[in-house]
């Protein structure tokens, strides 16, 4: 565990103003933070393939937007008929677009 004394000793030699200016220069030069990529789960991928918004996709599936959000965030998993329907939509997104337009 780091003590207050060791933190104070470390920070005593820092020039926060210069560090901030350097950080701004780095951002302007394209040198900024770590880049992360998040792989979309199957539900998100199916929705993106369909070209529908979350609200449109949920309405076409006759589910709540909240349920769709929980599936997309991985908090819940679709089961049974919903899982099967999502597989079909993933392979044939135009079908769900037709249902959404009807």
Oligomeric state of this protein: single chain
What's the CATH topology name of the domain at 42-101? Answer: 434 Repressor (Amino-terminal Domain)
CATH class assignment of the domain at 42-101: Mainly Alpha
Structural class: mainly alpha
Helix-strand pattern: HHHHHHH
The number of distinct β-strands equals 0
Count of separate DSSP helical elements: 7
pLDDT averaged residue by residue: 89
Q: Strand percentage, roughly?
A: under 5%
Alpha-carbon distance between the two ends: 62 Å
| Uncertain runs | none
Proportion of helical residues = 55-70%
Organism: Thioalkalivibrio sulfidiphilus (strain HL-EbGR7)
Domain HTH cro/C1-type: 43-79
GO molecular function, one term: DNA binding
InterPro entries: Cro/C1-type_HTH, HTH-type_reg/antitoxin, Lambda_DNA-bd_dom_sf
């Amino acid at each position: 565990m780091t003590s207050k004394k060791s933190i104070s000793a470390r920070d005593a030699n820092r020039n926060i103003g210069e560090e901030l200016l350097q950080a701004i220069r780095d951002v302007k030069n394209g040198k900024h933070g770590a880049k992360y990529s998040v792989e979309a789960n199957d539900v998100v991928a199916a929705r993106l393939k369909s070209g529908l918004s979350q609200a449109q996709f949920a309405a076409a599936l006759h589910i709540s937007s909240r349920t769709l959000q929980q599936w997309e965030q991985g908090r819940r998993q679709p089961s049974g008929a919903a899982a099967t329907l999502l597989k079909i939509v993933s392979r044939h997104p135009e079908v769900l677009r037709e249902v959404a337009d009807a």
